[in-house]
Amino acid sequence: MITWPATRAAEALEALARMSGLRPKSVDIPTPTESAFHNEAAADAGVNANNSTNDPRRLSLWIEATAATLGLNADPEEVRYADVESLLSTATPAIFRLADGTLLVLLSLRKILAPDFSVHRVTQAALRAQICRPWEAPLEEELTSLLQSAGIPKRRHARVLSTLLQQRLANKRVAHVWLLRLPSGSNFWLSLSSARIPRHVLMLGAAYVTQYAMWLLAWWIVGAGALSGRLDRSLLAAWLLLLMTLVPLRGLVTWLQGVVAITAGGLLKERLLAGALRLHPSEIRTLGAGQLLGRVLESESLEALALSGGFLALVASIELVLAAVVLAAGAGGIWHALLLILWVALATVLGLCYFQQQRRWTTARLAMTHDLVERMVGHRTRLAQEPREQWHRSEDQQLEHYQEISRAVDRKAVALTALVPRGWLIFGTAALAPAFVAGASPATLALGVAGLLLAYRAFRRLASGLWSLSEAAIAAQQVTPLFRAAARPQPTGSPELALAALKSAEREAAFEANDVTFRYRPHGEAILNRCNLRIVHGDRILLEGPSGGGKSTLGSILTGMLTPQSGLLLARGFDRQSLGAQAWRRYITAAPQFHENHVLTGTFAFNLLMGRTGWLTEQDFIEANAICQELGLGPLLEKMPAGMLQMVGESGWQLSHGERSRLFMARALLQNADLLIFDESFAALDPENLRLALDCALRRAGTLLVIAHP
Known about the structure:
4-stranded parallel sheet; Rossmann fold; 24 helices; ABC transporter transmembrane region fold; about 10% strand
């Protein structure tokens, strides 16, 4: 028996995390009962027990909450028949939910963790059969009869049957899987270690050392033979074999570089994206569009420059060490190697000078980017309000300052990239001249020339690497706030409370705010001062007040976007720390004000259903279409060629102000939260659409809080 029952999901998850080296937290996780995953609605409707007892959505809530408690992420995905083989080769470690509701715990490629915590080696074909067999068996008899009636030879039955099954079941959902990963905000070195980046870097270094050792040996063979006048066929054959051996080594080096670059770059992007999503709303307002765009641009360059500069610096370091060894053994002796060390110190000093100057240049460039973006965003206001002669008053001064700094940077760059390698070639050759005049042996002269040229190539790489690393270090300073924001702690809650979110019997509980006080600045005036509020299921509340009175602030506090300095917030009797951030969002959701809500570039359906938890089914799309019709968006869907799959946003179908507002309302309604908050959502609607939207909200929202101006 290699499959686990669903009731041992948390136990399997913790064991999988520990044996995979993900270092989960040591916490006590209670074992759920079978009824915890029972889908009462499906059971009452008479649905087959195999499909209802272990409801995948309820099981997903338990696994995701358990993983969060352990300090990990469990990313849910659906497994289609056509994707089983590719997923099995990449989705490790992972937990698969099979057709019968049991769990298959995949430790690594071809390794299964059994319920007795033993590890079994199985073939990929056996794993595929374990997942797909329940779906293939009902069709095999029918398809076999079809093949026999068609006169297909028996020797070809297996291949034809496989092809027919691929066509019939290609889009069939055959399993669910949870991919176990470290959170984006976890220790970055641990994330790199989990992805085996250090191991690949060591392999890369070893491959480079082997490659250069063979290259030096080939150079020694040719040089020694040419200078001694004894270049016979055996030496040429050895030289040729060494060159042929370098071909697979260089292929290995290229492959390892690609693996490190792609994996490390992906982890860095995930980290920065997680940090951007965890920025406080006030931080985003403070930075402005220009500075945020500048940080995005710097994050793009950070990945490329850090990886390219890192590779160049690694190769240059290996080459310099080998060059020092070769020079010490060559005609110049130890003094030649000491000259190399002094030249490396000089290159390092020039690199630091370049870094300082480049940082000044980057600061000036980002300041110009910030000003330019702000001017582009507000160009209509400037055209209408600002006198024409003042439009470009400060731009000339900025450009002059930028040009002056650019000249200084170029001078430092020339000293680093041109003078360092060429200066070494001149001084290194001069240091070798006395040995040549003194009549040193051909072999030692060959080694000296080899070390000289190897060091010259290393300095060229080192100059480029220092240039890239300087750029990367400056870019890292700009994106450090995003990098650190990803590590901000989020309340995880408990798995039992996460499951309780789906129990309809508990939807009668109230939402309370007790003595809530909030200030935007530590010593500023309180926007909310000892605020008390109680909302009972089924309430319809209209919150009115003047601008700046704290209406939107209260809405943001209720949804968890802002944290009060004092007071207590309760949903169904539990605070946000106990429920966890994800469960709290399932209880309370909001459609923020228009300027704080966005249509993302994607399909209309994606923008509607982005707040849904778990897997999307056909029923989700049916419900989304029904809500759109109730909100008066039916004519819009009919006009769009692809309907709900039409691309919208900045690079897609352009939506009007009112259409966007109703899209935001539909997005919030589709999350099926207990408490729904609409902040100025009806302000942009005409009377007819306002009536449709209000009727839809009153009909579908369990509890509704509408924020509006009087």
